[in-house]
Amino acid sequence: MPAETRLFLCLKDNYGVLLHDPDTGATAAIDAPEAAPVEAALKATGWKLTDILVTHHHHDHTGGIEALKKKYNCRVVAPEKEKAKIPAVDKTVREGDDVAVGKLKGKVIETPGHTLGHITYYFPEDHLAFVGDTLFSIGCGRVIEGTPEMMWASLKKLRQLPNETLVYCGHEYTAANIKFALTVDANNPVLEARATQVRQLLAEGEPTIPVTIGDEKLENPFLRADVADLACDIGMAGKQPAEVFAEIRGRKDRF
Ligand SMILES: [Zn+2]
User: Fold this and answer.
1) Is 171 a catalytic residue?
2) Is 172 exposed, middle or buried (0-12, 13-18, 19+ CB in 10 A)?
3) Calpha distance 217→158 (Å, rounded)
4) Residue 21 bears catalytic tag
5) Could you confirm whether 133 is annotated as catalytic?
6) What one-character-per-residue DSSP string does 136-194 give?
7) Does the active-site annotation cover 118?
8) Which of 29, 68, 157, 181 is the least crowded, having the fewest Cβ atoms under 10 Å away?
């Protein structure tokens, strides 16, 4: 049976997600920003927490791990490269490793840049990607520990996933991201339509995610750093895509 998911807000603008395997009852929390909203989601669904899949070490993704581990004795899976910074880790993973949630089959894709050990959990049969703070809808994470080249390479890896892949990211930043995107990619004909759709969703109190890789490829300027028209629009015609990416990221940091 296909995977089921439940999305909910944590802290100020973090997203928590539960991933559930109906065949076995296994349920994973993707990151654990704080325990209470995860527990509320478990109560609402009747699912039992068996795993926590951690994307990176930042506290707004790991703050709830210890309390949840204590209560549910769930398995904590985390990136090998960040194990020293994440509490209660049971299993570490790296590029290409398999991660099962019940019978759901996930793969680890290393996506460094925001942090050096950041990973994405990709479930190809269910067309799901849990990207943490690497890719946001119409945006991407700040390059805090890595380099722009590293982040661009990570985003290209995610861009290669099949178009129908549903992306779950770590934050609700879409409205602010679109506002910025229109300053660098104003001639992109699909951005305005997305802006209207996002305004409507938020007005109704609905999340703006998940989004598909196919849509993000067309709408997200951080995935379009190698599109000649965009480079030209920001005065960087002929530059290397990683340089164009660094320029867009720098402008967003100052926005
Ligand atoms: Zn982060």
Assistant:
1) yes
2) buried
3) 10
4) no
5) yes
6) ETTEE---SSS-HHHHHHHHHHHHTS-TTPEEEESB--HHHHHHHHHHH-TT-TTHHHH
7) no
8) 157
pTM beyond 0.90: the answer is: yes
Q: What is the pLDDT of residue 59?
A: 97
| Cβ proximity of 46 and 38 under 8 Å | no
pLDDT per position as a tens digit, 131-189: 999 999 999 999 999 999 999 999 999 999 999 999 999 999 999 999 999 999 998 98
Which member of 118, 126, 171, 185 is catalytic? 171
Per-residue pLDDT tens digits for 92-138:
999 999 999 999 999 999 999 999 999 999 999 999 999 999 999 99
Q: Give the active site residue among 20, 57, 58, 118.
A: 58
Tokens at 188, concatenated: 């992109």
Q: 254 falls in which pLDDT band (50, 70, 90)? A: very high
Rounded to the nearest whole angstrom, what is the distance from the C-alpha of residue 222 to the centroid of ligand 1?
Answer: 17
**Which position among 51, 126, 133, 185 bears the catalytic label?**
133
Q: How far is the CA of 24 from the centre of ligand 1 (A)?
A: 31
Is 58 assigned a catalytic role? yes
State yes or no: is 57 an active-site residue.
Answer: no
Cβ(120)–Cβ(158) below 8 Å:
yes
- The active-site residue, picked from 21, 31, 57, 61, is 61
